[in-house]
Amino acid sequence: MNDTTTELHILSPIVQYIFAGLCVALLGILFWIIRKLMNDRDNHFKTLGAQVRAIGTQVASVETMTQAVNIKADAIRIRINSLPCDQHEDLLSGLSKQLTALAREKRQGD
Questions:
Q1: How far is CA 73 from the centre of its chain?
Q2: At what angle do helices 13-82 and 88-109 cross, to 10 degrees?
Q3: 7 occurs within a structural domain
Q4: Rounded to whole angstroms, how far apart are CA atoms 88 and 82?
Q5: 62 in any annotated domain
Q6: Is residue 4 part of a domain?
Q7: Among 16, 23, 46, 109, which residue is least crowded by beta carbons within 10 Å?
Q8: Distance between CA 104 and CA 80 in Å, rounded?
Q9: Which parts of 8-87 are beta strand (E)?
Q10: Cα separation of 11 and 22, whole Å?
Q11: Cβ(8)–Cβ(15) under 8 Å?
Q12: What phi, psi does 11 have (nearest 5°)?
């Protein structure tokens, strides 16, 4: 090599500055992506919390309906047991229709 030739070696300062600039740019992009992921994660947890609260509300509603149905079923059972055996089938078919109508009303109310 002679002194008049300007060759770019990997160790030359210009190439080193270019690599350093690219590293800084890539680190900036990396930190930006991590910050966006953290924000998305926080938003995800907020949404998840709201969904869990909504499910809890639905569970409470279902428990209330279940208690109402159990009370009604107990009253029906007592009434059936108080009747003579030959009237049970007629009563059961009528009660089945009533329970179906009650369930339909509850679904429409929600």
A1: 34
A2: 150
A3: no
A4: 10
A5: yes
A6: no
A7: 109
A8: 23
A9: none
A10: 16
A11: yes
A12: -90, 0
